[in-house]
Amino acid sequence: xxxxxxxxxxxxxxxxxxxxxxxxxxxxxxxxxxxxxxxxxxxxxxxxxxxxxxxxxxxxxxxxxxxxxxxxxxxxxxxxxxxxxxxxxxxxxxxxxxxxxxxxxxxxxxxxxxxxxxxxxxxxxxxxxxxxxxxxxxxxxxxxxxxxxxxxxxxxxxxxxxxxxxxxxxxxxxxxxxxxxxxxxxxxxxxxxxxxxxxxxxxxxxxxxxxxxxxxxxxxxxxxxxxxxxxxxxxxxxxxxxxxxxxxxxxxxxxxxxxxxxxxxxxxxxxxxxxxxxxxxxxxxxxxxxxxxxxxxxxxxxxxxxxxxxxxxxxxxxxxxxxxxxxxxxxxxxxxxxxxxxxxxxxxxxxxxxxxxxxxxxxxxxxxxxxxxxxxxxxxxxxxxxxxxxxxxxxxxxxxxxxxxxxxxxxxxxxxxxxxxxxxxxxxxxxxxxxxxxxxxxxxxxxxxxxxxxxxxxxxxxxxxxxxxxxxxxxxxxxxxxxxxxxxxxxxxxxxxxxxxxxxxxxxxxxxxxxxxxxxxxxxxxxxxxxx
Length: 532
Hints:
Layout: H1 2-40, E1 54-57, E2 60-63, E3 66-73, H2 83-90, H3 96-105, E4 108-110, E5 126-133, E6 138-139, E7 144-148, E8 152-157, H4 174-181, E9 188-189, E10 198-204, H5 207-218, E11 223-231, E12 239-241, E13 245-249, E14 254-257, E15 266-274, E16 279-286, H6 293-301, H7 331-341, H8 344-347, H9 354-358, E17 380-381, H10 382-385, E18 422-423, H11 438-442, E19 447-450, E20 488-491, E21 502-509, E22 512-515
Parallel strand pairs: 10-21, 19-20
Antiparallel strand pairs: 1-2, 2-6, 3-5, 4-5, 5-18, 7-8, 8-10, 9-10, 9-17, 11-16, 11-21, 12-15, 13-14, 15-16, 21-22
Helix pairs in contact: 2-3
């Protein structure tokens, strides 16, 4: 009996080992399949830089529309469901008939293969969707090199240009422009700046250097100085604000002073006061690196950045958040009001993975973590992550329902203010007419919209074209019959929509120091032009 029991035990153990081996083999196979699918994703080579080119018009850097493929893996809750049912239920930006058209046309695929609309999704399925991308204009001011050597690249970033691809920006980002126009590729970010913030931006040219600089920032060995222009007469004496800052919403990237927040400190010193405009130029020295730290502390002190579209807004109450007073609003109400009032493309942030960005609400250009204090270290390889599934990086997709329209308060999509890229079927490229006449403006087929929610006069696209590559001709202004945005004529943003008066001026660390020239608005006697 004991022998039989021992034999059974051995057999049982061997069976468990065999089962474990099979499981491990299955897991290994799944990982290899996943790796293979990821490797097939478009955008991991230098070809991505040649997808399109720039042209300069009205002082703006613009990008010719181009085709792009978004990808994501099947979420667990979708497994076993029909692909069409999933899209019709979860992604209401388009009717089910449009998704069915895309599936049948082969522009919405599974594992890069065409499937039927009743295909049932499986674990590890990779969904890919081709879109016709229209990017948002940024300033045509050049990115200037402050310092470059074999280890590091330091630039002076103009306002309005995001550091990384995010929201509706991809080629119109610092990392793409540096790669395309300066041949500076495979850079690793050391810190970040908000899209509307200008100034010093550091990149490592090697993992070792990036880690070294990241360590210095994390351990507060880097002294940072910013210059800003604020409302009102800032006190003459030096002020240190040590109010803790809490993130109210990671989804939209909004913070406030709160006892529940993280400890932080910013030292402020007035550089001068302009009586005619009732504004002050202030030097800011953040000792810590919380999200939006400088802007939130200035709001709390009652001297917000003059043109801060977020923290200098009456949505924070009659006092605009001074002293932490938001007019009695709860955090939930504040977030709801912010979403309802502001155009999401202007300032809202997001904290979402690539998969969520592909199939969720639209994201904006300023993701969580890109704070004005360069918070903490953000070392990573810029170029490879551009199209890879990294949090908060890859742009929003065609399948994203849009935010409610501020005017209606309803749940209907606000397509004019924040149109999402659209689904399409590949077709011969045609050159649309860009005559800016009144008949077009009144046409039922043309919607007049804005890229940033502003309403200046539209300009003609037919003149003033200048490209950064050989492909820059009017033919590059391609249209697609299924593209919503090809039927929308956008007004250009005004200069005031492209800047916030906050500039990263000086950074100093162990054995190194960099600084930029100051922007025009940092001059004490400067007054904002009326026509800006």
